[in-house]
């Protein structure tokens, strides 16, 4: 009997295997640090100190995590429907345009809590719109979603640079960015939450969009596991043939899954654009769309898992900054190395340890 | 400058910009024709560029640089193969992982070894592939029309450029005229049939991804030690994805691959040339349009509006011997 068909208890599939994959990724990263001539343990303690050692550190960690929750959910919703959306990066970029346009239009007239829901819709709509073309091409024309979403990342980047350089730029300024939003277009920071725990937020841009992210995670859970649509999506993801026999419309389900995925990616823009820099800048997404892939894989495409793994990646990003500050030999790009290894082991080599674990598990069960 | 000079100018940069695309797209061709999707072309190219620049700098030899570039790229291919052939993991995810890993590790190691912000030190002329002047290039330089074309576009390129154009018919010959090529194409269409014929699907696919590794090694080496004189961080700058687009655009066929790459290279050259220049009747064309054009064209093609691009049938699907 092949080991692939043996069922393992949930705590192994959802707990032990991801943790093992993570440990291997970290061990290899440790070897890289050691090869450079620095102490891996020293780097690890700096990582934790930088990310969790101060209120400001935690604030930055959660700020990064907020973006990653959105993009992680975006990737996960698509994966449930069997679609690999590599385009979250571009969808988030366009989402930034949506939320910036709302903020630019409203910030003079209304307070932030009026702007915010409109901006959520704006960001979501623009993100969904950018996902809609690859989605349509997949659903109706049979183009490969992976290729088209990659292409759309680049088209989106070119479009946004054009808009920022030629259209939205403040006349007379050199930097390709919009004007700074007034208070009505800025999301308030969550300093008071940190105060509850007796920590000071400092300069960290941890803001209200974190709460929106948590709400979004709840809705994604509701959608995927508690609605008919979610069931149809999961059926399609598990087996397109079974879905078609069950009368689940392929094109409609693909479109809806991708639009939701794009909308979630787009909402990520609230965090950096309205929560942190209060303006739309070039390349503000900064790879968060791609981190979403790792986050979703680590979190086993489940909202709760995604929140945890987004925080883990938040720790990596903030702690990584701290390491590169304290150990100039290790640059910030070490994060990309770790991220690549996490994606490799948690995603592509997901089941490498499975046969061995099945073996061990069966021996224990017999006893 | 008269129009012919401009044309020659743009054509010679078209050649320069197309070479990495040709090597990389051919790499993708081998891999995808065998049924292994390769999003990691970008990473392999970048990794090869870094390895080539480091070794060329240390040994002062361009050829050793090339060997290092190929070795680095092939080992990444083997990782991709291990994940997607042996472990039957998701090929797209594996490719994405390789891209991330390489984007990071080249900068981390570059900074740690050379301390120049992720760059490698400037290479001396001896450790680069320098331009080759073809026979008679200087003699006919002054001849109208043919002279500039021959001496500035066809002659004066480095050895890797000529190898790239040789690699195209060679790939065609391997894929369509050898037993290995026949089997490679078969394993991308119907691995079950190949397996039934008693041929190892895994070993064929491993050989295909290794071919891809070798070719990506060439393209990375070209970037770092033929076109430039150092490794610069993120120097592949999306070329791996453009090559992927070219591969789709060429419908997974070797000779069209070359033309698609030349077209995309031409667009790139044109974009560089047009920067800040006015077009009669239109005005300044934003450079972003040229940058986005290859991607837009590929999407239109994929949508089936200009012919149908059918990928190899078994592409992206790991082969399971028995169920």
In short:
The complex is a heterodimer of chains A (367) and B (323). With 367 residues, chain A is mainly alpha-helical.
- What would you call the shape of chain B? globular
> DSSP strand (E) fraction of chain A?
under 5%
User: What's the shape of chain A?
Assistant: globular
Within the largest sheet of chain B, what's the order of strands? 1-2
Rounded average pLDDT of chain A = 90
Largest sheet of chain A: none
Radius of gyration of chain B: 20 Å
Q: Which stretches of chain A of 5+ consecutive residues score pLDDT under 50?
A: none
Q: Compute the number of strand runs of chain B.
A: 2
InterPro entries (chain A): ABC_transp_permease
Subcellular location (chain A): Cell membrane
GO cellular component, one term (chain A): plasma membrane
Keywords (chain A): Cell membrane, Membrane, Transmembrane, Transmembrane helix
Defining key terms:
heterodimer; A: 367 residues; mainly alpha; ABC transporter involved in vitamin B12 uptake, BtuC; 16 helices; globular; B: 323 residues; two-stranded antiparallel ribbon; Nucleoside ABC transporter membrane protein (chain B); transmembrane (chain B); cell membrane (chain B)
Describe this structure as you would to a colleague.
Chain B: It is found in: Cell membrane. Chain B: This is Nucleoside ABC transporter membrane protein. Chain B: It holds the Pfam family BPD_transp_2. The complex is a heterodimer of chains A (367) and B (323). Chain A has 367 residues and is an all-alpha fold. Chain A has a domain at 63-311: ABC transporter involved in vitamin B12 uptake, BtuC (Orthogonal Bundle), CATH 1.10.3470. Chain A has helices at 10-36, 40-52, 55-80, 88-106, 112-141, 145-167, 191-196, 209-226, 228-238, 240-245, 250-267, 270-277, 288-298, 303-326, 334-348, 354-366. Chain A is globular and about 75 Å long. The two termini of chain A are 20 Å apart. With 323 residues, chain B is mainly alpha-helical. Chain B has one domain. Chain B contains twelve helices and two strands. Chain B has a two-stranded antiparallel ribbon with strand order 1-2. In chain B, strand 1 (278-279) and strand 2 (283-284) form a beta hairpin. The longest helix of chain B is centred in the N-terminal third of the chain and has 31 residues, at 3-33. The termini of chain B are far apart. The relative contact order of chain B is 0.20. At the A-B interface, helix 5, helix 6, helix 13 and helix 15 of A face helix 3, helix 4, helix 10 and helix 12 of B.
């Amino acid at each position: 009997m092949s080991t692939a068909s043996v069922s393992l208890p949930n705590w192994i599939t959802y707990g032990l295997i991801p943790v093992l994959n993570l440990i291997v990724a970290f061990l290899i990263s440790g070897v890289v640090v050691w090869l450079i001539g620095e102490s891996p343990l020293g780097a690890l303690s700096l990582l934790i100190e930088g990310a969790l050692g101060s209120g400001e550190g935690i604030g930055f960690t959660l700020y990064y995590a907020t973006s990653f929750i959105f993009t992680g959910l975006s990737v996960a919703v698509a994966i449930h429907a069997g679609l690999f959306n590599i385009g979250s990066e571009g969808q988030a970029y366009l989402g930034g345009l949506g939320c910036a346009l709302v903020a630019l239009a409203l910030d003079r007239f209304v307070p932030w809590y009026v702007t915010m829901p409109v901006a959520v819709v704006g960001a979501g709509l623009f993100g969904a719109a950018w996902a809609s073309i690859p989605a349509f091409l997949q659903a109706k024309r049979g183009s490969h979603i992976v290729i088209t979403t990659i292409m759309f990342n680049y088209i989106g980047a070119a479009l946004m640079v054009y808009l920022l350089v030629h259209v939205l730029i403040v006349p007379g300024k050199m930097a390709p960015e919009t004007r700074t939003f007034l208070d009505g277009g800025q999301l308030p920071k969550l300093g008071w939450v940190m105060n509850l725990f007796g920590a000071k937020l400092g300069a960290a841009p941890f803001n209200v969009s974190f709460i929106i992210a948590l709400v979004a995670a709840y809705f994604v859970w509701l959608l995927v596991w508690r609605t008919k649509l979610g069931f149809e999506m999961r059926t399609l993801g598990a087996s397109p043939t079974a879905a078609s026999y069950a009368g689940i419309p392929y094109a409609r389900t693909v479109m809806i899954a991708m639009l939701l995925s794009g909308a979630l990616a787009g909402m990520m823009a609230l965090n950096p654009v309205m929560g942190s820099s209060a303006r739309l800048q070039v390349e503000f997404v900064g790879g968060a769309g791609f981190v979403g892939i790792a986050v979703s894989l680590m979190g086993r495409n489940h909202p709760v898992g995604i929140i945890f793994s987004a925080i883990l990646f938040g720790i990596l990003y903030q702690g990584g900054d701290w390491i590169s500050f304290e150990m100039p030999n290790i640059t910030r790009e070490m994060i990309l190395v770790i991220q690549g290894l996490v994606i490799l082991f948690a995603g592509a080599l997901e089941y490498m340890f499975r046969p061995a674990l099945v073996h061990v598990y069966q021996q224990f069960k017999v006893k | 400058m008269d129009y012919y000079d401009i044309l020659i100018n743009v054509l010679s940069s078209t050649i320069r910009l197309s070479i990495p695309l040709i090597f990389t797209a051919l790499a993708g061709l081998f891999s995808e024709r065998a049924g292994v999707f390769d999003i990691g072309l970008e990473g392999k190219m970048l990794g090869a560029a870094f390895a080539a620049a480091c070794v060329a700098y240390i040994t002062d030899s361009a050829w050793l640089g090339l060997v290092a570039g190929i070795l680095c790229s092939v080992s990444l291919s083997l990782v991709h193969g291990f994940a997607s052939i042996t472990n039957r993991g998701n090929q797209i995810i594996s490719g994405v992982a390789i891209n991330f890993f390489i984007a990071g590790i080249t900068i981390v190691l570059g900074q740690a070894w050379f301390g120049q912000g992720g760059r490698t030190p400037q290479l001396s002329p001896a450790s680069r592939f320098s331009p080759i002047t073809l026979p008679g290039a200087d003699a006919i330089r002054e001849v109208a029309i043919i002279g500039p074309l021959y001496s500035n576009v066809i002659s004066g390129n480095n050895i890797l450029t000529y190898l790239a154009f040789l690699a195209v018919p060679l790939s065609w010959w391997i894929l369509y005229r050898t037993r290995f090529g026949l089997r490679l194409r078969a394993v991308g269409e119907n691995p079950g049939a190949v397996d039934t014929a008693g041929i190892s699907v895994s070993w064929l696919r491993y050989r295909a991804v290794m071919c891809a590794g070798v070719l990506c090694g060439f393209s990375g080496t070209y970037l770092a030690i033929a076109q430039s004189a150092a490794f610069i961080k993120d120097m592949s700058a999306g070329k791996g994805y453009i090559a992927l687009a070219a591969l789709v655009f060429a419908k997974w066929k070797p000779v069209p691959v070359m033309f698609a790459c030349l077209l995309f290279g031409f667009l790139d050259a044109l974009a560089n040339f047009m920067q800040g220049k006015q077009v009669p009747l239109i005005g300044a064309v934003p450079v972003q349009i040229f940058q986005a054009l290859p991607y837009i064209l590929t999407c239109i093609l994929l949508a089936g509006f200009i012919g149908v691009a059918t990928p190899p049938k078994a592409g992206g699907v790991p082969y399971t011997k028995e169920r």
